[in-house]
Amino acid sequence: MTITEPFGHRLVAAIDARGPLCVGIDPHPGLLQAWDLPDDAGGLERFAMTVVEALGPTVAVLKPQSAFFEAHGAAGIAVLEEVLTSCREAGALSILDGKRGDIGSTMAAYAAAYLTHEAPLAADALTVSPYLGFGSLLPTVDVALAEGRGLFVLALTSNPEGQQVQHALGQDEKTVAQSIIDQVGALNAGDDPIGSIGLVVGATIGRTGVDLSGVNGPMLAPGLGAQGATAQDLRRIFADAHGALLPSTSRQVLGAGPSVRKLRDAAARTVDELRTALA
């Protein structure tokens, strides 16, 4: 499907209409077991499509984690394709959580696989890693912007191992994370209401001293709920941020399944809590 409106514009509209929430579709073995589903391609499909049925018509963004689908081989990839198509049909935006990061023709191939209108696995946005150098992302940046799609660039992640890279100082005395944030802001400069190149900034990172005021783009904030982050953490971390904040959770909502009604109720409660806290 050819898209004519930039991803940033579409995301702002979706958040305004449906609330500031992204729900991850993370069919790991523990959740499949909790839903009394087998850990095979059939269980994967029932799980993922139940989530889309329940939340696709009401939640702004759904975020399938590619690894859990890839783990089931070709059958799992076929389910992922079905999920992405069904998200579009239900009216939810999709972020494919693949954290792709490479160079040259390989990065261009990732862009073709996930960000072009003719691709079977096309998503509205893709998570990418800049830790081969921010310039390595340019093939995906160019395709995303040309196709009306978006990127979410890893900047500050909540895993402790990330700190040795993300908090390291460059020659300009900026942290690596701040350099990534500033380069994303430069790509979004002048876009109204926001640009389409976003950041991933964990909601559990605490105080970091980074400046998010120049991002002018979407900020995906994983960690809400089971990982320990609260709506108040979001207010503190993103107090000075300029852009569209998109908190993300998985287990907090998916743990209510497999009932479609209970999944919808859990998502609705989370949206209400976020709207109140972030107003």
Automatic annotation (TrEMBL):
Classification via InterPro entries: Aldolase_TIM (IPR013785), OMPdecase_type-2 (IPR011995), OMPdeCOase_dom (IPR001754), RibuloseP-bd_barrel (IPR011060)
Gene behind this protein: pyrF
Name of the protein: Orotidine 5'-phosphate decarboxylase
EC number(s) on file: 4.1.1.23
Pathway: Pyrimidine metabolism; UMP biosynthesis via de novo pathway; UMP from orotate: step 2/2
Species annotation: Nakamurella multipartita (strain ATCC 700099 / DSM 44233 / CIP 104796 / JCM 9543 / NBRC 105858 / Y-104) (Microsphaera multipartita)
GO MF term (any one): orotidine-5'-phosphate decarboxylase activity
One BP annotation, GO: 'de novo' pyrimidine nucleobase biosynthetic process
Species lineage: Bacteria, Bacillati, Actinomycetota, Actinomycetes, Nakamurellales
Primary enzyme class: lyase
Keyword Magnesium: no
Orotidine 5'-phosphate decarboxylase domain residues: 20-266
